Amino acid sequence: MRNVPIALGALALLATAAFAADDPIAARQALMDNNGAATAVAGGILKDQIAYSPAVAKAVITSWNATAAVVGGYFPEGSADAKRSHAAPKIWEDMAGFQAALAKFQDAAFAAAKASGKDGPADKAAFAKLAQPVMQTCKGCHQDYRLEN
After folding, report:
1. Model confidence over 86-100: pLDDT tens digits?
2. The pTM is what?
């Protein structure tokens, strides 16, 4: 059971790698779908819709950290496509700002992963303390760099 979070993160990265070589849009969508699913689980825990489990919390944090580690590589110049993606043109117009927002996500996800320990946060309060900064970085980036299609 202890290897479940690591396995989930590895699977997400392997699945994304399959898309990456040919289609960075599909790769980043897969990563963001994975991130959204992890965030939905986090939200369910924080709203008491899902019972707290340290292993589940660790899996959520591991998923965020895996996405944060690689997603920035899937926004190459020329990959804006409003018909296929929610990525706003502002990403490529303000790449420095986008990279700064991405760095905040990476820092928050890495800090959460480090602080969550080997077995995950001990309780819901500890999880909330780690999850909320990560979720805030997602919200901020989406406000500035995501289209609502």
Report:
1. 999 999 999 999 999
2. 0.84
